[in-house]
Write a structure and sequence with these properties.
With about 190 residues, the chain is an alpha/beta fold. It is about 40% helix and about 15% strand. It has a 5-stranded parallel sheet.
Length: about 190
């Protein structure tokens, strides 16, 4: 039984989709439900306030939508995707104790203040070093914060490594992630 639990809506800086349209699409596909997990990425220097989620309005509105569109055959949960950073542990902990989410994703979107989405993350270093920094940052965050239900997209780095490789004249395989190269840290 498939249940999509990583969905962004117009409440996230990187999406314009309405929750209602996403619900209709999920129902058409025969899914038993979905979980909205809009972004909250505090202290995002590359795009200041781009991923600040208006929790005061988000949660009541999404709960209203969930109540209006859920039934015995289709369940809607309201969650969040937190951009983890070690210096935000106290803020995340406090916010999660103040708010009532059905599902929380913890994701790594920044390494030393740079999102791998931006080419500057890869410039001047090998793909191996860029990927290793990403995985080490993930481990550092997991060592200090675990108040979430799922670790989001461990392969986030690959998406942008491969794009960088193609755009900058490397072989596409240069930006690919070989599990064997990072098996110990991934495991």
């Amino acid at each position: 039984m498939f249940f999509d639990s990583h969905m962004h809506t117009q409440w996230s800086g990187d999406c314009e989709a309405s929750p209602e349209d996403m619900i209709a699409s999920a129902k058409e596909k025969g899914l038993p439900g979905l979980t909205f997990t809009d972004h909250l990425d505090w202290d995002f220097p590359s795009l200041p306030h781009y991923f600040d989620l208006d929790l005061e309005h988000y949660l009541p509105k999404m709960r209203e939508i969930a109540a209006a569109h859920s039934d015995e055959h289709f369940r809607i949960r309201v969650g969040i995707e937190l951009g983890l950073q070690t210096h935000l542990v106290d803020e995340h902990t406090h916010m999660l104790h103040e708010q009532d989410f059905d599902y929380v994703i913890g994701s790594i979107h920044q390494i030393d203040g740079i999102d791998p989405y931006f080419d500057s993350y890869f410039e001047g270093r090998s793909f191996h070093d860029a990927y290793l920094d990403y995985f080490e940052t993930t481990i550092e965050n997991l060592e200090v914060f675990s108040d979430f239900d799922s670790l989001g997209h461990l392969d986030y780095i690959c998406r942008y490594g491969q794009r960088f490789a193609k755009l900058h004249g490397h072989e596409a395989s240069d930006g690919a992630l070989a599990y064997a190269d990072f098996a110990e840290i991934i495991d």
